[in-house]
Amino acid sequence: MAQIDVRQKLEILADAAKYDASCASSGTAKRDSAGQSKGIGSTEGMGICHAYAPDGRCISLLKILLTNACVFDCHYCINRKSSNVRRARFTAREVVDLTLAFYRRNYIEGLFLSSGIIRSSDYTMEQIVEVARSLREDHQFRGYIHLKTIPDADPALIEAAGRHADRVSINIELPTVAGLKRLAPEKSTARIEDAMAGMKASIEDGGDAMRRYRSAPRFAPAGQSTQMIVGADAASDRDIVGTASRLYDRFGLRRVYYSAFSPIPDASSVLPLRRPPLMREHRLYQADWMTRFYGFRAAEVAQATDEQGMLPLDIDPKLAWALQRREAFPVDVNRAPRELLLRVPGLGVKAVDGIIASRRWRRLSLADVGRLSRSIAKLRPFIVTSDWRPTALVDRIDLRTKLTEQLELFG
């Protein structure tokens, strides 16, 4: 590998990191070095890569790879061994120095670090952990750190990553075992899930220690996440939602990220020639939201898919589900429990909480609900209020067409 300076490395390795979607800072612990004799950085405040905390704060992260060289030859990866791309590699010290320099210039508030596999999984994981260790222990860095871990690495190294990072990621890569075996034969779904299970156990042990002992160190306070590629294999949306739901249940993940496959230079012949519609990725995130915050089971979300197991692109999956389950509607907003209100198309969590709070004092009209929701056109066929009943509207054969026209008109 030809000698190149740090700026050229940054250009190459920041660009190579753009394919990783799982870059977020939500859920981390609050830390601040202000007023302390030691330490630099904070996980608070307003700011490269932008992620958002639960309260809406924008967090700027230095998002880079340690190296884009890799001993693996995964068909879908632009950094695979056989790919004809320009290679670069940071040392652990260079990543530490870059992170501190960017922070002192107020460009970033944290680091997102991933890597290709160099030499071996253990060697690469050692370098990643060393970056986080040096930032935390040598420089007292209190900003946000997200590390992408390598499932084939020694479990002790993955556990060490959790001691220094706010969040760790272990990518599942593809939604199905068959897809991973075909496109990344050097990787194993079983090994990936074993690493997730080990991280879950360590996070739970860390949380238990924190409850018992005030002085116990934090362990990956923002939890673990994963990412799967959409559209590189034959997996349907039904398959993807089912896999994501299983991962949430088994491993207590904070997030599953979806990344639409993007054709790469010198692509393998086994890959599709075109990327999937970006709207497909968006619909999967909406379906993910349904299972995480709206009380839907994966099997219920699957009812919104077509015969091929694909979610519709022209309407959101919650509306698609409601159109398939018309016997569940209309819902009386003045009487229905929270779990039923959350299933009404057009009502989000905040709107439902607003309805429940408001109806303690008065019976709500259609106009009242409209002030709490963004889309009264979507709501009308599915709710009953003090002055509105949809009568036969919810049973119309052409309801989907009418709603689509109205949503396009008011969109």
Automatic annotation (TrEMBL):
Keyword Magnesium included in the entry's annotation: no
UniProt cofactor(s): [4Fe-4S] cluster
Record domain Radical SAM core: where: 54-297
Membrane-crossing segments per the record: none
Pfam families given in the database record: Radical_SAM (PF04055)
Alphabetically ordered keywords of this record: Iron, Iron-sulfur, Metal-binding, S-adenosyl-L-methionine
Gene Ontology molecular function terms on file: catalytic activity; iron-sulfur cluster binding; metal ion binding
Entry-linked Gene3D superfamilies: Aldolase class I
PANTHER family: ENDONUCLEASE/EXONUCLEASE/PHOSPHATASE FAMILY DOMAIN-CONTAINING PROTEIN 1, TYPE II SECRETION SYSTEM PROTEIN K
Protein name listed in UniProt: Putative DNA modification/repair radical SAM protein
